[in-house]
Prior knowledge:
By secondary structure, this protein is mostly helical. It has helices spanning about 5-20, 20-35, 35-60, 65-75, 75-100, 105-110, 115-120, 125-155, 165-190, 195-225, 240-250, 255-265; strands at about 230, 230-235.
Amino acid sequence: MSTQQSGLAGLDQTLRHTFGWYTVSKKEFKDAIRSKGLWILGAFFTLVFVLPVARVWWVNAAEGQGQLAQLIQERGMQALLSQVYLNRVTILLPIIAIFVGYAAISKERTSGSLKLLLSLPNPRRDVLIGKVVGRCAVLGVPLVFALGVTALFLVASNITFKPELFGLFSLFSVLYALVFVAITVSISGAFSKSSYSGIANFVVYMYTTFAWNLSVNSFADILTNGISIGSFDTGPLIGGAIRWHIVLFLKIANPNQAYKTLVNSMLNTGDTPQLA
């Protein structure tokens, strides 16, 4: 056994004895490799991120025109990140996170393998953490790989590559994906059937994507105008800067809005949450 292999084996043993959840997460990751899910995700993410660069590259070489190509020529990488990648990430990553994690625990509960897992010296907390970490690795590793390949394509293309912008965008995107995986796996642990978990995760996705801001804006309206029922009128509950900070915090608590705000702030587009 080489020095490198012995070092990896020693690290594996150290992690196994230090963290109770490590064994569970390692099994989750190995199962994804055996099922080829990791490779499929890696190929899919690579296509999602590389194709826009290849398209702009081809349009510039073949025609020298096109709305997207012209916009990227004018604003460079900022346009590529804000007009293409940001929309794709906010739509695709939560959906993929749901498929990766919605059956992480509920499926094992249905099959009975969860009882076997809990019969081993694994506390429930370690099982849950292990499932979350394992599924995060299943989604995070191919995503990081695809972003790395995309960076190489950007360097080779005629788009001005800005490593600091792309690095921060990649970091925010990976964290965004991992947050949704953690939410999805946690919801999976609350249901006895994978179908129920899938429905609950889909409802959460739809709410955070389309209804969260409407709910917060309605709450902001109550804070501003109060509650009025017939002759009962409370008048304004909270006003001024305090109201603004409360509503802003509630909007940023949405992972979708938090991710968009971070990316837009980095790109200096000025697209931040607005109060009603």
